[in-house]
Amino acid sequence: SSDLTKKRQMNINKMSYSNSIRRIRVLATLIIVLYHCFCPFLSHGGWNMYDNTIIESFGHWLCNIVLADKMLPTFFIMSGMLYFSSRKHKVEKKVLLILNKFDRLLVPYALFMTLYFAVIEPLTGPNSSPGHLWFLTILFSCFTIAIFLRKVDTRILIVFSFPLMFFASRLGDVNLLIFDVSKIVSYMFWFFAGWIVSNYYEQIKNMNRLLLRISILLWITCVCFEFPFKQTLLYIMFNLLLFHFISDKPFTNTVFSRVILALDKCSFAIYLIHHFIIVLLLRNSLVSQLYIMYPIISVVGMFWVALMMSYGIAIFFHKMEFKWF
């Protein structure tokens, strides 16, 4: 009886947070596009093409601190939420689950890596990079580990993956073929944290005022000050507040709702495409000059151009029934 009640509650939670996930997924996709528009100015983790200390500091502060690592942990939390709330991950054969994720994540990875080496690199030179595609291999790794360990209590996996996260930076560059071990260790906890959010979604949504104020204060403290373990606390507070404030109400027939749903449908394709568009456009001398002379205007302009072009290409391939978008 208690198990049945728990399953019913999880189904209610899933119906409720599926709308929240759609809205957050769109927001996170937009933030990733914006971050890559800042990348020409960023030295740490960016492309370091133009020297502008003010824009570099602002871009880093906005994307990596205020928005908690470009909302990358949020992507893994949402993936974990969808995985752990699905009955399929408990009953379907492991091989079929892994093949499904291989088709969904590694086939697009292979296609876009081929596109990069065959088309993009010859046009832009060896200094460019298909760097954003790492996300697909790490997410595939998270799914695969979770599938193989599905009989282990998820709470145990959370407890073990949390301290491992702190040792990721000490691993350095450890790669197994296309898989970056340090990144897997860094983001594995956030994938398992999706189980926490999916199980305690209603409590997060109905947080009392005192806890909410403490969470906001902690997030502001993380944004403004440096202290040990700041990054982890920042990510936790940011995502706690994100899932609290983002609406989970059903979508209506308003223009805004239709835009969100349209972008959500194309979010994966936008992620795959936008990076290459930005890299190609930056090779244009006029665009390069605009970035130097009018940095903020150029970043905003590049954001809209890359977003609209990515969306247009995604729609085209959807109509062609290209299944890997």
Walk me through what this model shows.
With 325 residues, the protein is an all-alpha fold. Helix content is 76%, strand content 1%. It has 16 helices and 2 strands. The protein has helices at residues 2-38, 53-66, 72-84, 88-91, 94-124, 134-148, 154-166, 168-171, 181-199, 201-205, 209-224, 230-245, 255-265, 267-282, 285-293, 295-319; strands spanning 175-176, 179-180. Strands 1-2 form a two-stranded antiparallel sheet. α6 packs across α9, α11 (209-224) crosses α12 and α14 crosses α16 (295-319). The longest helix has 37 residues, at 2-38. The termini are far apart. The relative contact order is 0.14. The model has no long low-confidence stretch (mean pLDDT 90).
